[in-house]
Design goal:
Helix content is about 5%, strand content about 40%. The protein has about 230 residues and is mostly beta strands. The strands form three sheets. Strands 4, 5, 7, 11, 13 and 14 form a six-stranded antiparallel β-sheet that branches. Strands 6, 8, 9, 10 and 12 form a five-stranded antiparallel β-sheet that branches. The protein has a three-stranded mixed β-sheet with strand order 1-3-2, with no helix packed on it. The longest helix has 11 residues. It is elongated. The two termini are about 55 Å apart. About 20% of the residues are buried.
Length: about 230
């Protein structure tokens, strides 16, 4: 530790010589230098009433009413319904299938890690589908970590997240589907879109009879505080 000494003496009452300082300054400097070894080696563990146990980054030394302890600050509570994070993915070209088995829509996939097990995930999927045979259905699934969610029950449209019927092969049918999911986990969650056809050739992102101006397919997932 280096202590800077200043010129001693009594400062003139009129302040004409600002370079002079009371002689007590250097006396104080002598005391500081005499104790500099103890000051340099001062550590929190040498203080009384301080508990340091395996400190990690971002911890603070706080007083708990009895001792000073190191702890990670609590995450401020946010009101239920607050949006904690948003992720989105888009596919800008079209894709076709003739399969009645659900097929992943490549590129329409997002992954996020929830902040809390109490969080809910709001999923929104939008796009355009069509079929070269008018009237055929295009079922779709929203899938989380390999499991379809938001499934319908009963009837011909069971076991799918949504279904779109194309009235005309010359025109695509727009769709928008939303769903609140509760993964109840803080592990990474992957959401994606799948589609299939009930017959003919199904197209996602364009009308069946032409490919003039493909329509983007978008998935957006928002984590909402529970």
């Amino acid at each position: 530790m280096a202590v800077t000494r200043l010129s001693g003496g009594t400062t003139p009452a009129n302040g004409s010589d600002p370079r002079t300082f009371p002689t007590i300054w250097n006396a104080t400097a002598d005391v500081i230098e005499a104790n500099e070894t103890a000051i340099d080696s001062l550590a929190l563990t040498s203080l009384s009433g301080v508990s340091i146990t395996s400190p990690v980054d971002n911890q603070l030394l706080t007083y708990n009413g009895t001792n000073w302890v190191n702890e990670v600050p609590a995450v401020p509570a946010v009101p239920a319904g607050s949006v904690l994070q948003v992720v989105s993915a888009i596919r800008t070209d079209s894709i076709a299938t003739t399969s009645g088995t659900f097929t992943d829509v490549t590129g329409v996939t997002v992954t996020l890690t929830p902040v809390s097990v109490a969080s809910k995930m709001f999923i929104l999927v939008t796009g355009v589908v069509s079929n070269n045979n008018s009237g055929f259905a295009t079922p779709m699934n929203i899938v989380r970590n390999g499991t379809a969610i938001g499934q319908s029950t009963g009837g011909d449209s069971a076991n799918q997240s949504m279904v779109v019927y194309t009235a005309s092969a010359a025109n695509g049918s727009g769709f928008a589907a939303s769903f609140f999911d509760s993964p109840s986990s803080v592990a990474a969650q992957t959401y994606k879109l799948q589609f299939a056809v009930g017959g003919g050739t199904g197209f996602l992102g364009r009308p069946a009879v032409n490919n003039n101006g493909p329509s983007p397919t978008v998935i957006t997932v928002m984590e909402v505080a529970g």
